[in-house]
Automatic annotation (TrEMBL):
This is Glutamate or tyrosine decarboxylase. The modification N6-(pyridoxal phosphate)lysine is found at residue 229. InterPro entries: GrpII_AminoAcid_Decarb, PyrdxlP-dep_de-COase, PyrdxlP-dep_Trfase, PyrdxlP-dep_Trfase_major, PyrdxlP-dep_Trfase_small. The keyword Signal does not apply.
């Protein structure tokens, strides 16, 4: 048994650190070791419990209702609000779209209106559920264009979406105007607050200006918010809240017309471990309302100091002033953002590259945690040093012929051999074997000249080749 745990620890040593405030994507760290311990122990205590049947495990139902009640207060919800615990933001988004679709069976070709900045989970929902996404470009301020979104609503629209904030740029959409347009058309309005839902209410409380986005806004019918982001809970917990039980009802699924037990589900999952719910409940109980306010003060102080510090680094600027805790950094022509990301990794920081999209340049994305505050000076020193190296190295040089060839490829016409060639050219396939390179600048530069459709195809081919049976287990 000890050997197995030692092997797990050895494998995990190659992963990004989940704690320490230096991984600025994928994980969110309160910096509270005791809270993390309580969360882990609660997950372990309920790992074998099953959320499938609330009559069998009523403690899980109690915890779920407690979490929804806490969130309802944060979101200025009416007394009629109801909610469900899900496995994450994507499942919350999927359920919001599925529920809107199923509320209108008379609409045979349903659509939803989203801004170009809406999270890709909505595009995934469109793919899964046959709800066509009508995508509206953002305005110059990178927020959803409320006028354009209103104009895009028609008789096929079952859902209109706003973000609080958008992931890519960290800004809150004009929810008041978007929700009003949706309500005027008799259409649901969902606010994706998976990132901001557990921190923006405290931002308002401590005196920061945030545009209205909660259930206090007329016309908002549902909101998603993640506990495993700024709720600082263990991974695997999000919430989806609906303004009324009637709005939520199409989310539920029941099946009695078969020889087995009657299947009754509130979310997309049937069997689901009670561990994540218990872990989230334990963390929220441990931190409490006052604790979350303190963590909000810390994460916004870290955000403000990083934004101010970036302005002092030659070659860098913040793309837009963030409304929340997400920061997007762009470089000037003297400096390659992908090289900066690699250099930051060399210095013990993970920052996330975002590729070119339309007129928006490739950039560096930060999801800042409360635990980052203690390390802001180190972060600013590391990014200044990384920029110096990137400037000295110059931009990544792609062969012009290769760049033109890649830019002109049609992924639909490519064979498996073509994909292997592209993976090899990107440095992801060497000697016939998949490789996980430690430096990604050349790979990202190559992907950056490809169309979004080709990026998707190449990375899907890479994922397919990564996900193959092991022979040494």
């Amino acid at each position: 048994m000890t050997d197995v745990l030692a092997r797990l620890a050895a494998m995990q040593a190659g992963d990004l650190p989940a704690h320490g405030g230096r991984t600025l994507a994928y994980v969110y760290d309160s910096g509270l070791a005791e809270v993390d311990r309580v969360g882990r122990e609660a997950v372990a205590a309920y790992a074998g419990s099953n959320g499938l049947d609330p009559t069998a495990f009523p403690s899980l139902l109690q915890m779920e209702n407690d979490l929804v009640g806490f969130a309802a207060r944060l979101l200025e919800a009416p007394d009629t609000v109801v909610g469900s615990v899900t496995s994450g933001g994507t499942e919350s988004v999927l359920l919001a779209v599925q529920t809107a679709r199923d509320a209108h069976p008379e609409v045979t070709a349903p659509t939803m209106v989203i801004a170009s900045s809406a999270h890709s989970a909505f595009r995934k929902a469109a793919h899964y559920f046959g709800v066509r996404a009508v995508e509206v470009p953002c305005g110059a301020d990178l927020r959803a264009d409320a006028t354009a979104m209103a104009a895009a609503i028609d008789d096929s629209t079952v859902l209109v979406v706003a973000s609080a904030p958008s992931y890519a740029h960290g800004v809150v959409d004009p929810v008041t105007e978007i929700a009003a347009a949706a309500a005027a058309a008799g259409v649901r309005c969902h606010v994706d607050a998976c990132i901001g839902g557990w921190v923006l209410p405290y931002a308002t409380r401590i005196g920061r200006r945030v545009a209205p986005w909660t259930f206090a806004v007329d016309g908002v019918t549902s909101i998603s918010l993640d506990l495993h982001k700024y709720g600082y809970a263990p991974k695997g917990t999000s919430l989806l809240l609906h303004r009324t039980p009637a709005l939520r009802r199409p989310q539920f699924f029941a099946s009695a017309d078969w020889p087995g037990y009657t299947m009754l589900n509130s979310t997309m999952q049937s069997t689901r471990s009670g561990g994540p719910t218990a872990g989230a409940w334990a963390v929220v109980q441990s931190i409490g309302d006052a604790g979350y306010e303190k963590l909000a003060r810390e994460v916004f102080e870290a955000t403000d100091r990083i934004v101010s510090g970036i302005a002092e680094v030659p070659g860098l600027r913040v793309l837009t002033r963030p409304d929340s805790t997400l920061v997007t950094i762009v470089t000037d022509t003297s400096c390659d953002p992908f090289t900066v990301c690699d250099e930051m990794a060399e210095r013990g920081w993970y920052v996330q590259p975002q590729l070119t999209y339309g007129d928006l340049p490739a950039n560096i994305h930060l999801s800042i945690s409360a635990a980052t505050l203690a390390h802001v000076d180190d972060f600013l020193a590391a990014i200044a040093a990384s920029v110096e190296v990137a400037v000295a190295s110059g931009p990544v040089q792609l062969d012009p012929g290769v760049a033109a060839y890649v830019a002109g490829l049609d992924p639909v016409s490519l064979s498996e051999e073509d994909f292997d060639g592209l993976l090899a050219a990107a440095g992801l396939l060497g000697g016939g074997d998949l490789a996980l390179p430690t430096r990604m600048a050349d790979i990202n530069a190559l992907l950056d000249v490809a169309s979004p459709a080709l990026r998707e195809a190449v990375l899907l081919a890479f994922l397919d080749r990564l996900s193959r049976p092991s022979t040494n287990f």
